[in-house]
Amino acid sequence: MHGNTLYRIPKIPYLRLRFQTVAGQRCHLPVQKGSLLRGAFGHALRRTVCVMGPKQECQPCLLRTQCIYPRLFETFIEEPAPRFLRGLKTAPRPYVFEPFDTATEYAAGTALAFDLILLGRAAALYPYAIYAVDLMAKAGLGAKRHPFTLQQVMWQKNDAGTKSLDENGWERLYDGASQRLLVEPNPLVIPNGASNSCNGSLQLEFLTPTRLKFKNELTMDFTFRMLVFKMLRCVLELVHFHVPEATVDWEFHDLLVAADEVQVANSHLYWVDWVRRSNRQQTTMKMGGLMGLLNLEGPVEPFMDLLRTSAVVHVGKGAVFGNGKVGVVSADEHSCKRKGDNRD
């Protein structure tokens, strides 16, 4: 980087929980389940912790700063934000739902699994999150409130992978039958300082619809510098509001300048549309976004911590629903292995 300055991405503790639920009856659910899960979770969490009743609005509430619900689900800005973050109306939400089940028809006894990532201080609130998911499952999912049963919750012990539930990477945290917590989980930390790229080429995969706005318009046409700025803003917002012990360096201009040296070699992006129902606004909303591959060439190594962090926290609008999931892979894995790169 210019002037040998290495911008350090603040570390974000996080806890990835994998929920295993089972349908109680035959039912139909949408392909994109992030909005459904997030909405049901919010209602269940409020019923769990709010002592003021459903008619009490959160913002003027006497107990707002002490309540779990606004700390986790409906976050407010309690103190003046730094200059870079001025203009925000609310703080970012410290969680991400990652539904990976795209089925629509469920017979009785069919499993529905999804991940919930708790970020920063929200990681300590996992018992509330588990109880809220148990409550929302019993209350029912979808417009017809189909009942589900929470069977178990796993927690990710290391970042060796998120797909397989092997004994090295995952551990059982909660048993639904006994309604007991079995262990006390330890949050992971990103970035962890490990690199999974050779310096010179990289492939980004946008795994779920990603909504990137530039000049107030959604687009698939952007430079690496523009993408870095979006990712950096998202990460620094989360750190400022939810990782208060971290030190944030607001002077990141050199990082953006260095991003100009990385070029989009070729783009294989496409647009995917989906619609979500907003119960609060009583309307349907289009939530489409880009998906596909982006091949990068240039000095990518200074950006690996940012990319690894973005892979966990997501990027763009609607991240809490699971939008903006990014996969980071080397464009030449065999070459990296020959050079002794130890990836996760």
Provide an overview of this structure:
Helices cover 22% and strands 28% of the residues. With 344 residues, the chain is α+β, with helices and mostly antiparallel strands. It has two domains: 13-189, Alpha-Beta Plaits, CATH 3.30.70; 193-338, 2-Layer Sandwich (Alpha-Beta Plaits). A hairpin with a 2-residue loop joins strand 11 and strand 12 (217-218). Helix 1 (34-49) crosses helix 3, helix 4 runs antiparallel to helix 5 and helix 4 (224-242) packs across helix 6. The longest helix has 19 residues, at 224-242. The protein starts with 11 loop residues before the first strand and ends in a 6-residue tail after the last helix.
| Count of DSSP-assigned helices | 7
Task: Calculate Rg over CA atoms.
Answer: 20 Å
CATH fold call of the largest domain:
Alpha-Beta Plaits
Residue ranges: pLDDT <50 for 5 or more in a row?
333-344
